[in-house]
Amino acid sequence: MQIEYVTIEREYGSGGTEIAARVAERCGIACYGAQIMEIAAKELHISVDEAQQYEEKVTNSFLYSVFAMSQVQKGSADLLSMESRLYVAERNAICGLAHYGKAVFVGHCASEALKGQGDVLRVFIRAADGFRHNRAVSEYGIDEKDAEAVCRRYNKKREKYYAFITSRKWNGISNYDMILDSSRIGIDGCAEAIAALLAEP
Fold first, then answer.
1. SS3 166
2. Dist CA 65 CA 73 (whole Å)
3. N or C: which end of the chain has fewer CB within 10 A?
């Protein structure tokens, strides 16, 4: 398989964004994460902060998710909630960026957006609670007493958004080609494992 794109979903504090950046640097390809939200927010004429708030408001309703995705496929975005329109804008951003060539995409259900766009390596990065807690404090500047709650909040947000878009479990093993534990093999070890697959002919 000649991999064209890598998509990374990750637990908060697991180092997924840093891993993505290292993979991209090793392989000489682009890496997109925050840019996806920025492009989507601009398309919808809202701020990035507003876009992030809409991501947190997504419904857990399976029936609404089915309805929303059916409207997306029909091109009837005007009938959708702002949360659904945000996903459409993010999907457009991801597909647009993919046209520039091989890349690593972080979050935003990129593997769903890139279905049919080429060979995609779907990766999930997890880590032990203590590792994620410590990174939240040392790398992201979260107060020690708040770290556990912040990790929980962001993971819940990602879980809900993924379920809303795909109707599947965010951390379900069947959704991914590769699941890596950064607390066991390290940030650099994860990056090397992914980059090695990208380098295969």
1. helix
2. 12
3. C
Amino acid at 87: Y
pLDDT digits (tens, 9 = 90+) for 108-159: 999 998 987 779 999 999 999 999 999 999 998 999 999 999 999 999 989 9
Q: Which secondary structure element, helix H or strand E, spans residue 6, and what is its range? A: strand 5-10
- Phi, psi of 186, deg, nearest 5: 85, 160
| Residue among 72, 137, 134 nearest 109 (CA) | 72
What pTM was estimated for this model as a whole? 0.86
Domains of the chain, residue spans: 5-199
Give the model confidence (pLDDT) of 57-104 as tens digits. 665 544 444 555 555 555 555 556 677 778 888 888 999 999 999 999
Instruction: State the architecture of 5-199 in CATH terms.
Output: 3-Layer(aba) Sandwich (3.40)
Beta carbons of 124 and 52 less than 8 angstroms apart:
no
